[in-house]
Amino acid sequence: MEALKQELKEKIIAVLNLEDIAVADINDTDALFGDGLGLDSIDALELIVLLDKDYGIKLTDPKEGKHIFQSIDTMSSYIAANRTK
């Protein structure tokens, strides 16, 4: 699971062009939206594409995404349980 969390942090930084943030700056329990990383709705769309492209997970319910994208912990748990790639 730690390798998946590390991979997720690296992909989020690359996909969202978070040039000022290092992997070490992201805690597993930090909020991804709002006070945490400060991501917005456009970033959420990018994360949905990332889940589909890299892990074979298709999100159709926006409420589901809101829960999944709470933190690196919640994302990695969801990916581990649902990935097809």
TrEMBL record:
Residues 1-83 form the Carrier domain. SUPFAM superfamilies: ACP-like. It comes from the Bacteria. Coiled coil: none annotated. InterPro entries: ACP-like_sf, PP-bd_ACP. NCBIfam families: PRK09184.1. This is Acyl carrier protein.
